[in-house]
Amino acid sequence: MGSPPLFYKWSSKILPWLSIVSILILGVGLYWGMFYAPTDYKQGDVYRILFIHVPSAILGQSIFMFMAICGFINMIWRAKISGMMLKSAAPIGASFTLLALVTGSIWGKPTWGTWWVWDARLTSTLILFFIYAALIGLHSTIEDKTKADRAVSILSIVGIAIIPVIKKSVDWWQTLHQPSTFTITSSPSMSPDMYQPLLICVIGFYLFFALLLTLNLRNEVLEREKNKNWVRQLFGGLS
Amino acid sequence: MMQSSISDWLTIILRRDLIIAFRRSSTYITPLIFFLIVVTFFPLALGPQESLLSSLAPGVIWIAALLASLLAVETIFSEDFRDGTLDDFFISLEPSFILVFAKVLIHWLITGLPILIASMIAALVLYLPFESFIPMIFSLLLGTSFMSLLGALGAALSLGRSAILSAIIVLPFSIPTLLMGTSVISSSLINQDFSGYLMIMGAMLAIGIPGLCLLTVEALLLNYE
Amino acid sequence: MLNGFDEVFIMDGNGPYVWSCLVIFILILVLNIFTALKRKNKILKSLKKL
Predict the structure, then answer these.
(1) Alpha-carbon distance A197 to B138, whole Å?
(2) Touch between chain B and chain A (3+ CB pairs, < 8 Å)?
């Protein structure tokens, strides 16, 4: 699927299946989590936010990893499609990170009593969101799309190098200023009744990311290859 | 003809840029004044209580230093890019890594170094205890150098575009520097060991000099395609 | 299985928090899909003009 026309044809075939499967799995996971999973004995029903919060936090981080890999490929092999992937993934990653922040803050209200706590995880997620914003902002200011892709690739590589340092330093900062009194994540020995729907939700989120990425990528491919022959042939017969 | 070595090349760029910088005093005065003004604003806004100010001093000094070092970031490449000197540097077959390194060094000399000196005045004014001066100087030394490296990358990526863009690009990545820099001073305030933070900052600098300079070269080359 | 509106919506008192999270989640997903589809229509329209 290296070349844009091949990707376009291949994705047209897979798109209906991907959308059905992703929505189905996401629906099953969330329905299970909302109605069938048992109530947590410590936190009560509010823990059900976990079925949205945890997958979106995971996605926010793994999409950044994905972007950095795309950026690396784009820098070394100059593969056009990897630059487009990078560009298409950025808004999705930003929205999942924002979702993780918002749901985390809604979860915080009943459990901690405030909408926002300078907890290490929340803070580093907020910084991740700022980095996504910087990447999107940089891409939008450069007119030449391939140049913009490469500029964002450079920045995403810096990002992936510095994110572990940010996490570590935020942890230290927190221990210096205020000892951590609350942890969001439940104990590792999570009951299987809760773990199974969470796993399904995570898989559903990943599939949904794949769906959104495919949609965005197809748009990107069409827009940039507007004047190529294969696009003309594909859409010339329509009008 | 003697083939000029890398160190000759470095000294040529350094001398040229330093002369240019010193002819126009605003290049090194502006960040300095900006730093002192920002530091002054905190007592004005928060009140002059000594205990409050000395506990806030590490953060105040670091925020002012970060903002001041970002102030002159635009000038790192923009002037040479506009008059075509940068093209000449890239055409000459010397490693362009050296050019970027020299530019970062110049930026540090005209912003980081004055800030370093002014920080002592700021520390006095903010009632930072005298024992914390040495850790503050070391953390600023390592931190502002890393900021100059990051700033060069931001300037290269936003070359010829809006000035605020480079600040938005650079600021999220400067957070570890900010956190560790303030942690060094805060730990020294409560007599804790701060060498660990300094080591991490040094390690970031050691990785940043080759890594960020190479990426900055790549970013600059984007303008010549 | 839970019965009744109150039991489903209110849960143990914190239900609204949970449901608002779900609503925001769906909102963000729909927004993402919507912008993608809108952009696709725009591109297709401009392609037909060519």
Answers:
(1) 51
(2) yes
User: What mean pLDDT is reported for chain B?
Assistant: 87
Element counts in chain C: helices (H) and strands (E): 2, 0
The CA–CA distances, whole Å, from A20 to A28, B110, C37 equal 12, 59, 16
Number of domains in chain B: 1
pLDDT digits (tens, 9 = 90+) for A191-239: 777 788 888 999 999 999 999 999 999 999 888 888 777 877 777 655 4
B53 assigned to some structural domain: yes
User: Which positions 10-49 of C are in contact with A (Cβ < 8 Å)?
Assistant: 11-15, 17-18, 20-22, 24-25, 28-29, 31-33, 36-37, 39-40, 43-44, 46-48
Q: pLDDT tens digits, residue range A79-89?
A: 888 999 999 99
| ipTM at complex level | 0.87
Residue B1 has a pLDDT of 41
Evaluate whether residue B129 is within a structural domain.
yes
Q: Tell me whether residue A165 is in a domain.
A: yes
Inter-chain contact A166–B176, Cβ cutoff 8 Å? yes
Backbone angles phi, psi at C13, to 5 degrees: 110, -25
